[in-house]
Amino acid sequence: MVDRVVQQAIAQVLSPIYEKQFSANSYGFRPGRNAHQALNRCRNYITEGYTHAVDMDLEKFFDTVNQSKLIEVLTRTVKDGRVVSLIDKYLNAGVVVRNRFEDTDMGVPQGGPLSPLLSNIMLNELDKELEKRGHRFVRYADDLLILCRSKRSAERTMTNIIPYIENKLFLKVNREKTAAAYVQGVKFLGYSFYVLRGEGRLRVHPSSIAKMKERIKTLTSRSNGWGYARRKKALRRYITGWVNYFRMADMKKLLIRIDEWYRRRLRMVIWKLWKLNRTRWRNLIRLGINKYQAWEWANTRKGYWHTANCFILSRTITNERLCLAGYVLFSDYYRSVRVII
Fold first, then answer.
1. pLDDT recorded at residue 341
2. Average pLDDT over residues 99-107
3. How far is it, in rounded angstroms, from Cα 87 to Cα 117?
C-alpha cells in the first residue's frame, strides 16, 4: 500500500511535466483523452483519404520494455537522480506470481500507478519519430495505427518503422499480427472501419461481437442459479456499458438481429426457471393461453432452446412484457444514447 501511494505521488508530479511533451495523436492513459477521441481521429484521417493502415502489434509490450532504455529516456527530462533511482527500484522490485517471487529485469509491472505513465513516456519516442517522418497515426497505449493513402505506402511505412522500433527502442514487433491493409479489415480498440461515399465510418469488429455474445450466454446461463433480480441487474450493467462504448459505430440493424437472439435467450432461461410442469401450465394460462394448449406445452419434450423459439413463448413472454419486466434491449438503449451524441 505504501509503495502504491509513493508511485501515485510520483505519477502526479511527472504527469503534468510530460503532458507538454506528449503527441496530440496519443490518447491512452492521459487526462481528458479517451478511446472515442482516438477513433474519431482515425475516422477523420480516413475521410481525408488515408484509407490504408499499418496495424502495429507490439508483442507483450508491458513485459518486454527495456528498462535501461526507459531510464535513459527519463533522465532527459527528470534531472533529480533520486527520483530516477526510485523509479528504477520499482521497476526491479520483482513480482509474486502464484506465491513465487520472480525478478523483473525487463518490462513495466502491470497494474501499478506508474505503469501507464511510463509506457507513454517510452512510446512517446515512437510518436516523435512518426511525426518527424510526417505520418498520420493514432496511438492508444500500445495499440498503434498508422494511416496511409495506399497499400504500397502502408507496406513501405511498415518496412521502414519496424527497424526503428526493434533496434532503437528495443521493443518486439509481432510480425504475424502486424499488417498493412485496407482499413475495412483492421481492428482498433474493438472497432473496425469502412468508407461510405468517401466518408470514414465506424462499425463493431466481428471479434467484439463474438465476445459480447459469449458474455451474454454466461449471464443468461440456465444453470448459474441466479434469480430474476440479479440477472436483470447484471444484464443491464453489461448492456449499457457495452453500448456506451460502441455507440459511435453504425450498428442499428446489427443490434436488431442481436436482440432477436437475446430475447430468445431470455425466454429460454425463464422457461427453465419455471421448472415444474404445473408451474409452466399455470403461468401460460395466466399469460393468456387456454388450458388445453397450456397443458400440452407445459409437458413438451422439446429442449429449452428449441422451445424458446416456438410461438407459444413469443405470444406469452412478448417483447413488451420483457421490457416492462425490466430487461434492457440493445437496440432500445442504443437509440437513446445516439440521440444524446
1. 47
2. 71
3. 12
SS in 3 state form for 50-116?
CCEEEEEEECCHHHHCCHHHHHHHHHHHCCCHHHHHHHHHHHCCCEEECCEEECCCCCCCCCCCCHH
Q: To 10 degrees, the CA torsion angle through 20, 21, 23, 27?
A: -60
Cα(178)–Cα(3) distance, rounded to whole angstroms? 36
pLDDT band at 132 (very low <50, low <70, confident <90, very high): very high
Helices (H), 220-251: 228-245
Type and span of the H or E element at 330: helix 330-340
pTM: 0.89
> Coil, strand, or helix at residue 172?
coil
The model's confidence at residue 95, banded by pLDDT at 50, 70 and 90, is low
Cα–Cα distance, 295 to 293 (Å, whole number): 5
Q: Could you give the CA distance from residue 262 to residue 265 in angstroms, rounded to a whole number?
A: 5
Q: Say if CB 315 and CB 289 are below 8 A apart.
A: yes
Q: Is the torsion defined by CA of 4, 21, 73, 54 positive or negative? A: positive
- Of 41, 6, 204, the closest CA to residue 113 belongs to 6
Class of residue 217 by CB neighbours under 10 A (exposed 0-12, middle 13-18, buried 19+): exposed
Q: Which three cell numbers stand for residue 315?
A: 405470444
Residue 42 to residues 154, 177, 248, 251, 337, Cα–Cα distance (Å): 15, 20, 12, 18, 21
Q: How far apart are CA 139 and CA 120, in angstroms?
A: 10
